[in-house]
Amino acid sequence: MDEQPSAGPAGEAAHSLDRRAELSEFLRSRRARLKPEDVGLPDFGRHRRVPGLRREELAQLAGVSVAYYTRLEQGQGRNVSAEVLDAIARALRLTDAEHNHLTHLAKPKQHKKKQTARPQQVRGSLRQLLDTLDHVPAYITGRRSDVLVWNRMAAAVFGDWSELPPQERNWARMVFLRPEYRELFVEWEQKAIDIVCMLRMDAGCHPDDPRLAALVGELSVKSEDFRRLWATHDVKEKSHGLKLLRHPLVGDLALQFESFRLIGDGELALVTYHAEPESASAEALRLLASWGTDATRAGSSAPR
Q1: Per-block average pLDDT, block size 10, for the chain (304 residues)?
Q2: What's the rounded Cα separation, in Å, for the pair 169 and 142?
Q3: Is 170 in contact with 290 (CB distance < 8 Å)?
Q4: CB within 8 A of 245, min separation 6: which ones?
Q5: Which three-class secondary structure state does DSSP give residue 246?
Q6: What pTM does this model have?
Q7: CA distance readout (Å), 132 to 1, 136, 151, 255
Q8: Do 88 and 5 touch, CB atoms closer than 8 A?
Q9: How many distinct helices (H) and strands (E) make up the chain?
């Protein structure tokens, strides 16, 4: 099993995300995606000057005054009640993940700033668990999509992360800044969307995290794709699904993934991948298991 050393706060950017701006832009983006007919309101066509619902229409649907909703959308709402947020979430047709994100932005919990810089720790028993998964690619992620620990099979499938500097063992940096991951993920765009949605939820929960703000700033400068996806303000949780990979040694892989939040261990999540029994992907995993990290080294020199 490999592990990422905990990076300290030295050299971190001393800034944070603007929670009020995040709240304002999130509400605007959710309002813009709704059409009057979506919520049972008449559409006057050419007389509309804004995409989606007007503020007055949204306020009417939520049962609040236009002035109150305007202040909230401008990031100036103070002491907003849970009942009002629930009403706005219903009016905007928010998903559960979006509703939670709105609540975090509008009613932030008081976090000590030192907590955001505290190293993310993985229990020894969890490291041992990864080692027992001989034929299952598995890893544990933390806040900001950091990859904290992983097993031999994860290195064989996704690359030997021990060869990367600790700060580079981060899914967002790998997917947006490393070309080999564009080739690895057949549906790269969907993988990128999932990561951005996860970072958005992190930003809602921890707007004062300087490392998260620095990561968003770096990716915004270096990746046009990241800037485009970040501007959508989409949030969602994805706990399971199918990933299609194109491995440089064994070719196409169709793997089911499961993500398990580790209760009592902060924001850690255990992610596992498996193939359908007796499938070509299952046979490919067995082949990779026999090679281990050597598969990564051989694959890096194999023709794409």
Answers
A1: 48 64 92 83 64 88 92 83 92 93 83 57 90 93 94 93 93 97 96 96 88 94 97 91 95 96 86 96 93 57 43
A2: 11
A3: no
A4: 157, 184, 185, 186, 252, 253, 254, 255
A5: strand
A6: 0.83
A7: 9, 9, 9, 19
A8: no
A9: 15, 6
